[in-house]
Design a protein that fits this description.
Blueprint: H1 3-19, H2 21-50
Length: 59
């Protein structure tokens, strides 16, 4: 793919995204939820490392 083709594809993609702002918001929301979930999981791992006995009931 040449540079011109790449720029043209990018322009089409930007136009497509602009027409689908609601979809973008949904994707952003899903990404935010995924980040939050990852943070919770990391926090849970830290808690289990600190209090291993108290978290045995998870399994």
């Amino acid at each position: 793919m040449t540079r011109e083709e790449y720029q043209l594809t990018n322009a089409k993609l930007v136009k497509h995204l602009g027409a689908r702002i609601k979809t973008r918001h949904v994707i952003t929301l899903i990404a935010a939820l995924a980040n939050y979930y990852r943070l919770l999981m990391r926090f849970g791992v830290v808690l289990r490392a600190i209090y291993p006995l108290q978290f045995d009931w998870h399994y």
